Amino acid sequence: MSKIIKIHDMSLRDGMHSIAHQFTLKNMVDMSQALDKARVPLIEVTHGDGLSGDSVNYGFALHKDEEYLSAVIPKLKYSKVSVLLIPGIGTVDHLKMVEDLGVKTVRVATHCSEADVSEQHISYAASRGFDTVGFLMMAHMLSAKEIVEQAKKMAGYGANCLYVTDSSGHMLPEEVSAKIGLMREAFPNHEIGFHGHHNLGMAVANSLAAVEAGADRIDGSIAGFGAGAGNTPLEVFAAVCDLKGINLDVDLSALMDAAEDVATPIMGDKLPRVSRGALTLGYAGVYSSFLLHAIRAEKKHGVPAREILLELGRRKTVGGQEDMIEDVALELLRAGG
Amino acid sequence: MKIRCALIGSGNIGTDLLYKLLRSDVLEPVWMVGIDADSDGLKRARDLGVKTTHEGVDGLIKHIEEDNIEIAFDATSAYVHAENSRKLVAKGVKVIDLTPAAIGPFCVPPVNLDEHLTQGEDNVNMVTCGGQATIPMVYAVSRIQEVSYGEIIATISSKSAGPGTRKNIDEFTVTTSGAIEKVGGADKGKAIIILNPAEPPLMMRDTVHCLTKGEPDQEKITQSVLAMEAAVQAYVPGYRIKEGPVFDGNRVSIYLEVKGIGDYLPEYAGNLDIMTAASAKTAEMFAKQMIKNRT
Predict the structure, then answer these.
(1) What's the CA dihedral at B100, B169, B131, B121 to 10 degrees?
(2) Contact check, Cβ <8 Å, B169/A317
(3) Is A259 on the interface with B (CB under 8 A)?
(4) Mind listing the pLDDT tens digit for each residue in A108-117?
(5) Domain count across chain B
(6) What 3-state class would DSSP assign to B80?
(7) Would you call A123 an interface residue with chain B, using a CB distance cutoff of 8 Å?
(8) Which residue range forms the structural domain that includes residue B141?
(9) Tens of pLDDT, residues A23-60
(10) N or C: which end of chain B has fewer CB within 10 A?
């Protein structure tokens, strides 16, 4: 029996970006129940920008993180639930607020070169016995060697699993192989994970490359819910893995049903796709959740979203800098005016 | 006549502040306190003729009387500030706290420095760099119209964020959020901080979003915001409104940039500059009051 690759569902967290954080409690429960039935081991539930992401900058969710978690967790039979925390947005206090709700995994995300801002949160989560994940975002911006150096810090604070996160969907399979391969080598006793976005249409190929390079966990979502063109579509990835003889220990048919019958009707016309904007994110290496904000800025100020996103790429903006979008739009408007 | 003061903490903030105090007409930096004799900050202080100790605040306390130290700046960390402050206040020293400890009341000079002068506190807290850059603007809106929610996003270059800031990033968000409410006048405050590693380093940027109760009075708010920009520029020349105020429904957004004057770190580190400039200004006002009471 080959090792089981653990898939981690993003539909209820990264998927929040696709719908401007407006899932109802029923949406969340319906999707998580379908995932539970398909035996998906881990499901992430929070605002798209993690605990306490609720803001003008990122958008106010329909419900609080606590309400979503309380609605979803008690109904699960098989799946466990994770929360995302981005230092600088969420704090250890926010983690304390949700830790009694039955959360199993805490993922602490930083920009790939700034791992040392995660010390408070990773060490707290590890000390409380959580499955603790260090999540290095925008990993296309550093070399494999540098990623390993940053991951060492997170491992030192207590993370038991370390992620290479392609937040822009900018990476190609050979880059994923190189980065995951070096991580595998550097951390023989840690789990290694990969989180992809489909902006260049590469999410499934990249996730497969990650598994082949030694990854233990792969993020994805049903019907590819997620920022930009979405995350790795889990039902597609599961089918590919089945053909390749990779063991995910999930129910493929139930995953397909979850994507088709449960998830797709919820998203309606907001179903992620490789749109012009999403493709620009992948092409220019821009944080995927900027997409809807850039489209909104286009509507308000009349500056094409593609121009805004390309400029944000040139300026090397990082995750969380959504406030740059209107700023850059106004600047471009003046320059072009 | 100058009031003699001590700097505790020889990191980025303490060292930047030292340069500002050396230019002051009413303050004289006499001591600089660190914990590492080889730190760049202590070396520079020695070269500039300032007395130094690497034995922490205890290395300073025994010299307070003989050197007549009346004001101390603490730029260490929230964890050691309480103990430092207790020892200094017991010796009759007025403490300006640049850590996010916030034992004393928050001080954001263009908003509430006058209030602190009349109340004569032993310890005032300078909030955070992001707070100094944004809270004046939250106040500029709330003094015109009620603000139900104030949110700030501070983006600083990775190079300007020292190990203390990184290790204790939660203190930034918690302290700044509290001050958006208490000093900025918003019913509810939220603060976000982002580090950006781009090269060349980006200038400190701050965004302020206020949600007003009812339709914002665009003309009055714009006037108030522009007046506040000028008030901050009086002590931080590189402070400017980049865009805005932008009005969208009941949202008022102001996009700011803070260019430092390059005392210790280069110009991009506006976060350092606004924190130390606000602290120096606060201490100068206290010093002027001390001098006036004596003559």
Answers:
(1) 0
(2) no
(3) no
(4) 999 999 999 9
(5) 2
(6) helix
(7) no
(8) 129-268
(9) 999 999 999 999 999 999 999 999 999 999 999 999 99
(10) C
